[in-house]
């Protein structure tokens, strides 16, 4: 029986790894749909090669920095991971590694949301290396790898702080340094809607992310015992549903129109919000956490827009603002049976746990957030100086990163037509 | 003043003196456009071969122009002959060009005397109007409503009145037609959100502004026009139409606040006279209003919606 249990555990987490990796497919569609046609090939394709870089770096040093023997700040062994041993009553090291690397890739992809439509290809390459080596693994070590936050009893079931907040903080630093896209803000301070080119892509992207999240949260049980994974999936589903509904109604109430991009971000907000708390709270609380997340994301997007932080994919709001809320929500809603009773932090404020857990959660968020932001900011600033700017030239930005960075358009026929409009009638005829 | 450029200069130099009221501003526009007509017809070196009416429509027809409006106009002439058709189309082209030079941009919907659809003999106009009403498509019904706002600037007013009578009579004989008119104007842009807040432009150069034309004016203008078509009222300005409708007892309750609110609305638009292009005259920045003004504007928007809903219910 125990052998079966071990196999099942390994199988479930391996499936989880695959689901989490498939979230990158969701990001590809989400990001490509949310940006303009002239950048579509680039925005989609860069996710594949940054996943390549991220994987290699994580294999070489990332995993070691997280889980290696080291100090409170960083791990310092297990580099160039190659443990092929079999399961010893738990997960095989390779299954564990595979699951871990996918989380690092998700965080990296979130960070690159802040680069969208204006960063040089070279900036992606270098930052992918540095983020996967020195930013993500450090925060992960603090919380998951036995670092200084690990023993505090921080409740972060699937990695809201480690994965989402870290990625969002890097995206924030990038957004600040890269400055808004050309044409985003007018001289009088008003802001334009540089609408994404395909809402269907964005929608499908969100659905794929939603499905992938069952692996992200569900397999963070690291096993199948007691079928607890079902409980986690239930909470995940409820929060995502609540987030979508809340965002749609909020958008409708505020602007008079239930706009699609906002509704989609609401679903993601619900998912992000429940990431930290999915294994700690009651289903009714999951609904509340998702609703608040969906509500927050609408106002957060408006806030960032008003602050002239141009965030094409809403990464700052979805993964940052809402990620913080989700992590803190444990301090309010964590059930005693899923926290105190199993020695994983304290129950939430509403269950007589007092302010303690909320404090622990806040400390984790603030420390991790500051580290991720400051280090990302410094790295990007230095890159900016050394590379002669992180951003493509104005001309390149106008013609699109597909052509400037990769030499061909994601939509060749369409873009040729666009160009023809700008050139001669003769060329136009050629394409008609 | 013998050239469009001279008219433009004179207009630009003097227009600010006429901002004091809607009436004076619109009379000023009328005067300018009549001058343009004069120069255009002089340029043809030949007097009009028969009686005619040159009318403007849209906001100009309704006597509701702001500082800047695009051009909407047409011609009705008495007899259709090849020579006449050619003459008036030429005149129409010249007027449209002249208006553009003077500062009334071309109409993107092509409602201009240079367009054969809007430049026809009386008989052809009559046929065309009946044809439009028979067809009852969204587009043709829209044209009929646009025509209903026609106001003669130069020539014989009776030509237009007779054509409007045709619409009125046809509508009496075909009671279902009024529903087609209603369908045409059913959609309005909401200016007040579910929580009683202004629904402002979310993005773009007018972020934070309310679109007065679509959220405030059109519910009034369209509802009142519809009632006017039904009752055979030929006045074109919305405020005059309201006064005429108010003479009928059945509209007392429905329209009791309308005159006051519509006049206030016109004043708000007049306050946008700093406008630099046509679009600017439609957008009001709500944050720049005082608390009382905001309250007042909300009342006006809600009343416009109520009126529109009520008219919608009746047809």
Structure in words:
The complex is a heterodimer of chains A (432) and B (315). Chain A has 432 residues and is mainly α. Chain A folds into two domains: 2-391, Ammonium transporter AmtB like domains (Ammonium transporter fold, Orthogonal Bundle), CATH 1.10.3430.10; 397-431, no CATH class. Chain A has helices at residues 2-34, 40-67, 93-112, 121-143, 160-178, 199-218, 228-255, 260-275, 283-306, 315-333, 356-386, 394-399, 401-406, 412-422, 425-431. The mean pLDDT of chain A is 94. With 315 residues, chain B is of the alpha+beta class. Chain B folds into two domains: 4-174, Beta Polymerase, domain 2, CATH 3.30.460; 185-314. Chain B has 13 helices and six strands. Chain B has helices at 4-14, 22-43, 58-61, 82-102, 122-135, 138-148, 157-173, 177-184, 212-231, 238-246, 252-255, 258-270, 291-314, and strands at 52-56, 73-77, 119-121, 151-155, 209-211, 283-285. In chain B, the strands form two sheets. Chain B has a four-stranded mixed β-sheet with strand order 3-2-1-4, sandwiched between helices. A two-stranded antiparallel ribbon of chain B has the order 5-6. In chain B, α4 links the parallel β2 and β3. In chain B, α5 (122-135) runs parallel beside α7 and α12 crosses α13. The longest helix of chain B is centred in the C-terminal third of the chain and has 24 residues, at 291-314. The model of chain B has no long low-confidence stretch (mean pLDDT 93). Chains A and B meet through α7 of A and loops of B.
